[in-house]
Design brief:
The protein is mainly β. The chain folds into three domains: 124 residues, Immunoglobulins (Immunoglobulin-like), CATH 2.60.40; 93 residues, Beta Barrel (OB fold (Dihydrolipoamide Acetyltransferase, E2P)); 86 residues, Immunoglobulin-like. The strands form five sheets. Strands 1, 8, 11, 13, 15 and 16 form a six-stranded mixed β-sheet that branches. Strands 2-3-4-6-5 form a five-stranded mixed barrel. Strand 21 and strand 22 form a beta hairpin.
């Protein structure tokens, strides 16, 4: 991902809604990391919620789950178990991490005696809705049966703009061609995504590979919340499978570029944000559609914008805004001037 965008994204994670922070900082990960069961891991249905008596986080909620499938020694299928989650919005009945009646892969750790219940889950865990846990569940079931997991797999989904991630407005893409090619050119392998948007390479010789995607929808580009370009190093896996993952979003490919300048016309570095033009200003002003930085010469580019009109808000030595900039699918609107008023 573009470095300016990654930096701005990381700096704002602490301000984001829980669903956004969870998706950007933890669940969308690349690399080789077999699932580590911290204390308990199970597929369960959320059946009730209550407020915590002992609160180690501002808004702790206790969720009760009916265990459907277990991947640890306890709890067992059919049992009910309570899990603490500090991700509520102040009211455990709304804005919480879990929705009653829905199924989740729950990754919980032992929270100790200071909590109401023994098990807790957090942002940086593998906890997620069942619909977003296809790869994780397949790996857990394969390992439980003594099988070999793929050396490399991942999921390709659409996303309608960075601001839409918190709302879950994305869906898997089938029939996308995936090619991996080794650095030395000795190995090239091909796969395609299935109906769940998942591609898989069962066996890959150890080494570093460039991953490419072909067949994305028109005006879409591959994007992830890790590094670009899409490279991954497959380690020696000693028979169990390397368990490497690289998932991407097919994001809109529109953009806005230009220059932020002071009253004398000199380029100024700072932060540039794009919001849908019809979105009212709020405090804090989230979610944005795209965010980036202007360099020391004032040059900036905002990425991953879909067709539409945007309000640009920016700040350097002072701050300002441009009410409307139009973006067309697959195009970058260039030459946008962001003048900073004099102090």
């Amino acid at each position: 991902m573009h470095r300016a965008f990654r930096f701005a994204l990381a700096s704002l994670l602490v301000l984001l809604p829980p669903a956004f922070a969870r998706a950007t900082s933890c669940t969308v990960r690349s690399g080789c990391h077999p699932l580590d069961i911290q204390g308990a891991m199970f597929l369960g249905e959320a059946i009730s919620v209550r407020n915590a008596t002992v609160r180690t986080t501002p808004f702790s909620c206790i969720f009760r789950f009916r265990v459907i499938e277990s991947f640890s020694s306890s709890p067992r299928p059919g049992e009910e178990v309570e899990v603490s989650a500090g991700l509520g919005g102040g009211d455990c009945g709304s804005g919480s991490q879990f929705e009653i009646g829905q199924r989740y892969l729950v990754d919980a750790y032992d929270s100790g005696a200071q909590q109401d219940v023994r098990l807790s889950t957090s942002i940086c865990s593998n906890t997620r809705p069942e619909s977003q846990a296809t790869i994780a569940l397949a790996e857990l079931r394969t390992r439980a049966s003594g099988g070999r997991v793929p050396d490399l797999n991942g999921q390709i989904s659409t996303i309608e703009g960075i601001d839409r991630l918190a709302e879950g407005e994305y869906k898997p893409l089938a029939n996308v061609a995936v090619t991996i090619a080794s650095e030395n050119g000795a190995t090239t392998l091909h796969a395609a995504t299935d109906s769940n948007g998942i591609y898989s390479f069962a066996t890959v010789p150890p080494g570093t590979y460039r991953v490419a995607f072909d067949g994305l929808p028109p005006h879409r580009v591959a994007m992830q919340f890790d590094e670009e370009p899409f490279d991954i190093t497959i380690p020696e896996s000693s028979g169990a499978g390397a368990s490497c993952h690289l998932s991407v979003f097919a994001a809109p490919s529109g953009g806005i570029s230009g220059k932020m300048v002071d009253a004398s016309g000199t380029g100024v570095e700072g932060v540039v944000e794009a919001y849908p033009a019809d979105q009212p200003r709020t405090s804090p002003p989230l979610p944005w559609a795209s965010i980036g930085t202007a360099d020391k010469q004032g040059h900036f580019t905002l990425h991953f914008l879909r067709d539409g009109d945007y309000r640009i808000e920016y700040s350097g030595l002072t701050s300002g805004k441009v009410d409307r900039v139009t973006v067309r699918d697959g195009q970058t609107t260039t030459g946008v001037q962001l003048p900073l008023p004099a102090k």
